[in-house]
Fold this protein.
Amino acid sequence: MRLILLGPPGSGKGTQAQRLIHRYGIVQLSTGEMLRAAVAAQTPVGLRAKDIMAGGGLVPDEVVVSIISDRLDQPDAANGFILDGFPRTVPQAQALDDLLKKKRLKLDAVIELRVNESALLQRVETRAAETRARGEVVRVDDTPEVLVKRLASYRTLTEPLIHYYSERRKLLTVDGMMTIEHVTHEIGRILTAIGAVEPKTAQKVHKKPAAKAVSQKASKSTKKASVGAGKAAKASLKGPKKASAKKQVKKRAGRAASGARKRLAAGANRAARKAPKKAGKRRA
């Protein structure tokens, strides 16, 4: 999964990026952190960036792109990444497209967190008031005055990226004014819809008990079948015996009945023979 999160300061990009990292096992690529890491590692690109920063200059886009290129080659970026702080301008987006094309990588989506600027200002004012009420010092970059400047810079430099990625059918918009949980749920739904989400370990864990349950059910059904088969076998063995016994009883009853009929017939014949003799003697 390869994503870019867009949105003005205070829209919740950092919070959602952390949730995506933990949920999908991808890495967050922050240009600031990558620059510092490259300088600390004294890579050729890092040394070049160090000289530029030491002179008070801005690091050119090509240097930043080179640092991103080196970072994408590291093993932990194989599962995917979220770009944080880059691109900020259309030329940077074009340079990123060229880099991904060379590496044969595809950007899955650019997710824009759309928010109401007046609501953002109100959030910052409330947060600053709560900080002062606790007796703490308000951060310099967490005041309404600084936010107004940052929003103006975002509209001038970064908002054109919305049109740029919309033309390339990469832009997906989420209502950033929803609760954090609702925003997370909506991002997950979108990523699933576009096919950017791969089956994860959590889903595999759920599959294992299911497989065990199926095997247990199968073993139970097998046992039941074997028990039933045993009973059927016993019944089949007993059945012929019972059937043969019944036949024998029927045969014996039939023999007894036929014998009784024969005896009755013989008795009747004997009675018929004796009757005429008695009648003749009486007449004489």
Observations:
- The chain has ten helices and five strands.
- The longest strand covers residues 109-114.
